[in-house]
Specification:
The complex is a heterodimer of chains A (317) and B (286).
Chain A (H helix, E strand, L loop, with lengths): L7 H17 L14 H23 L4 H6 L8 H13 L4 H33 E2 L3 H13 L6 H10 L7 H8 L2 H14 L2 H9 L4 H12 L1 H16 L3 H6 L8 H10 L15 H34 L3
Helix pairs in contact in A: 4-15, 5-8, 5-9, 5-12, 5-14, 6-9, 9-12, 10-11, 12-15, 14-15
Chain B lengths: L1 E2 L2 H28 L11 H8 L3 H32 L3 H12 L7 H10 L8 H6 L5 H4 L5 H26 L3 H9 L4 H29 L3 H9 L10 H10 L4 H26 L6
The chains are: A mainly alpha (317), B mainly alpha (286).
């Protein structure tokens, strides 16, 4: 993660470099002096269209009737009236199931987030700052589990949870979510590279207990990396599909990701066996929008922290 | 470095979670993979049941083909786009583009599949003209089984590439200006600078991206699952290995064979991770 940053000074000077080299004009493989090759700009713009167009379409789709969706220009605005109608139809689906799913997602992701932070940050701190038996083994286990494709553990996790009769309990997904080795690794890197040891030594000389030093000195300084771990963990859990799909048998327990799948089953255009009185495509588009709003909000609010956290990790070396 | 018994207190909770949700399920998978329904040791028979299942070889082929497309597109396009963004004279434009490329990242999971179900349906797609130009007029034609590796690549690239572009861009920023300046004085153009200096210096990050993308790619589940739901069987429910493991466990009630598939996937993941840790020096922990 350390390189996942933009250092303003470097960025500016490399900008100047680009300008300077452009002004200097023709090197080998460059267009003739004074003429700018339009191809790079075209490629960059093409990819803007690729990444943004589907999102734009989704926003607009929620404002149309299904008929407008098929016959109007794909990038036209429908009407507020249609948007309200879609909203009503969606919320009426299985007695506001959509809100229940969103509430479940929020509950699972935020509980897991709290546990992750309480567990991962002290663990990363201890592995970076203290020496104890088994520390290296723990570190290696963390790295291995972090790189292991964890969706392959879903079926074994089901077997384990089934053996202790916890299938259908919300803890069967919250606790696996809360186990987040990548977060431990991130905090470990942060504390071992960006944390001045003298500060902690001073705190101990002043009579702080180890816990006190962690809470009063280390933790406040680690705010950026805590935010970073929190962001990654929240997004990973909010968007997880496979684990809750397997662990939660009842519709009223589903998080919104799995709920979208249920909704998809009720759209006649995608599933001809669905009865025609259920939901249509615009409602599905609206539900998808609702499902991503929390991630977008978290992203926008944590952006400042994210950049700070990435910068903090980079000041080493 | 403090010597401290306090260390144990700090890592206790994490160790419990690591054991309960990392080590125990792995051990459980291995146990189930090597025993039969009654709990007696059965050697490799679960593995041979899995491998000889008529769905197994196609599933491996599907995942392998998808991985090929996905990894190649990541390397070529992510590195290429990051280099182009890095050459932009205007920092503001570059930052705005990186943000726009990252936006679909918020739509990971089922949400991205929903979006692409629409984009790939010629009746409502914003790029219906393109689909028609290729000769596809119905959703079923677009999602024909032969197209799936490319379609899953499109979905994965759309959601995941933006984050990697940000990472690569950051890595490019860390390349010393002196090196680039020296190259320029020696007469290297943009292309030669990229090919001879920037890309070699990015190697570690490219490997890192490939490993994580490989590990993620082998886990393909939600995309084929939802697509098969939406296509009334055009795409099968047993397209990927994880779907196959799911089917063994919950359709055939054969958790032992399901565990064998999981163990195989874990082995592949661990070998790749091991090679990565050993070869790249990326996680030089101490």
């Amino acid at each position: 993660m350390q390189t996942d940053i933009r250092r303003p000074a470097v960025a500016r000077s490399s900008g100047r470099w680009a300008q300077a080299s452009r002004a200097a004009g023709a090197g080998p493989g460059r267009p003739a002096r004074g003429r700018v090759n339009p191809l790079p700009a075209l490629v960059l713009l093409l990819f803007v269209v690729f990444f943004v167009l589907p999102v734009l379409w989704l926003l607009l789709a929620a404002t149309k009737t299904d008929d407008q969706l098929v016959h109007n220009n794909p990038l036209s605005f429908g009407s507020l009236h249609a948007l309200r109608a879609n909203w009503n139809a969606l919320t009426a689906y299985q007695g506001d199931a959509i809100f229940m799913w969103l509430r479940n997602s929020a509950l699972y992701s935020s509980l897991a987030l709290v546990i992750t932070l309480c567990v991962a940050v002290p663990a990363g701190y201890a592995m970076a700052m203290t020496e104890f038996r088994g520390r290296r083994a723990l570190l290696v286990a963390t790295l291995v589990v972090m790189l292991m494709p964890n969706a392959t553990l879903v079926v074994p996790l089901f077997l384990e949870v089934n053996a202790v009769h916890l299938i259908g309990s919300m803890w069967s997904i919250i606790l696996p979510y809360a186990f987040y080795p990548f977060g431990v690794y991130l905090t470990y890197i942060y504390f071992s590279t960006a944390m001045p040891r003298e500060l902690l030594d001073a705190a101990r000389l002043d009579g702080c207990s180890e816990l006190g030093a962690f809470r009063r000195v280390a933790l406040p300084l680690a705010a950026p990396v805590v935010a970073l771990v929190g962001f990654f963990s929240f997004v990973a859990n909010w968007t997880n599909y496979y684990l809750p799909y397997v662990m939660l048998p009842q519709s009223d327990q589903l998080p919104v990701q799995v709920g979208l799948g249920t909704l998809l089953d009720s759209v006649p255009q995608f599933n001809p066996t669905a009865s025609t009185l259920q939901v249509e495509r615009p409602e599905l588009a609206l539900a998808t929008l609702l499902a991503i709003v929390p991630v977008l909000i978290v992203f926008l609010f944590s952006q400042r922290f994210l950049v700070a956290g990435m910068l903090a990790g980079a000041t080493k070396s | 470095m403090w010597s401290g018994r306090a260390g144990y207190g700090f890592v206790a909770a994490y160790t419990v979670l690591l054991i309960a949700f990392g080590l125990v399920p792995t051990g459980y998978a291995v146990y189930f993979a090597f025993t039969d329904g009654g709990g007696t040791f059965s050697g490799l028979s679960n593995f041979s049941t899995a491998v000889s299942d008529f769905r197994f070889t196609p599933a491996v082929e599907h995942v392998a083909l998808y991985l090929l497309w996905w990894l190649v597109s990541l390397v070529v396009l992510v590195v290429g786009l990051a280099l182009l963004l890095h050459r932009l004279a205007s920092r503001g434009v570059s930052r705005a583009l990186r943000f726009l490329y990252y936006v679909p990242g918020a739509l990971a999971g089922a949400a991205s599949v929903m979006v692409w179900l629409f984009v790939l349906d010629p009746t409502v797609s914003p790029v219906a003209f393109l689909l028609r130009a290729f000769g596809y007029h119905t959703f079923g034609e677009v999602i024909a089984p032969g197209h799936l590796p490319i379609l899953f690549t499109l979905i994965a690239f759309w959601t995941g590439a933006g984050g990697w572009i940000v990472v690569m861009y950051g890595a490019l920023n860390n390349i010393s200006q002196d090196v680039l300046e020296a190259a320029r004085i020696d007469g290297a153009g943009a292309w030669q600078t990229a090919w001879r200096i920037q890309i070699p210096l990015l190697r570690k990050w490219i490997v890192y991206m490939l490993i994580l993308a490989f590990a993620g790619g082998t886990q393909l589940f939600v995309e084929p699952q939802l697509l098969s739901q939406a296509s009334v069987g055009v795409a099968g429910r047993d397209y990927s290995l994880n779907q196959l493991a799911y089917d063994f466990a919950f359709q055939n009630n054969d958790v032992n064979t399901a565990a064998a598939v999981s163990v195989e996937l874990l082995l592949v993941g661990l070998v790749v991770a091991g090679v990565f840790v050993a070869r790249s020096g990326f996680f030089d922990a101490d």
